[in-house]
Design goal:
mainly alpha; Rossmann fold; two-stranded parallel ribbon; 5 helices; flat
Length: about 110
């Protein structure tokens, strides 16, 4: 998919993966794409620049009791980001999360008709 020498660039380029992703999307002329995991402001900025829709899932956790690694930059970089188009609460049951996801999908489908 990508040349081996370009993979080595990822260490110095914070936008490496998101830039490669958007190159792929543009090369293949995809129209509707769901990016399931965004962890850095630079990735959000790339999506916003392309007029993408941002959904933020939030869950209350106690960072003191949380699992190891939850204070890593990839886990906290978006904690204070508040410009998402939708916010989905993930503090309830799996059934409640599915309902919220389905309701959000319906809004997006209606908006894009």
């Amino acid at each position: 998919m990508w040349r081996k020498e370009s993979i080595g660039q990822q260490e110095n380029d914070y936008g490496f993966w998101v830039n490669r992703l958007f190159e792929l999307i543009e090369d293949r002329e995809y129209k509707n794409v769901i990016i399931t995991d965004v962890r850095y402001i630079s990735e959000v900025d790339s999506i916003v620049e392309r007029k993408g829709v941002l959904l933020k899932m939030v869950r209350d956790i106690d960072r003191v009791k949380a699992i190891h690694g939850t204070d890593h930059i990839s886990e906290v970089d978006l904690d204070e980001y508040n410009d998402s188009n939708f916010v989905i609460d993930n503090n309830g049951t799996l059934k409640e999360l599915k309902v919220a996801a389905n309701e959000t999908a319906k809004v997006l489908i209606e908006k894009n008709k």
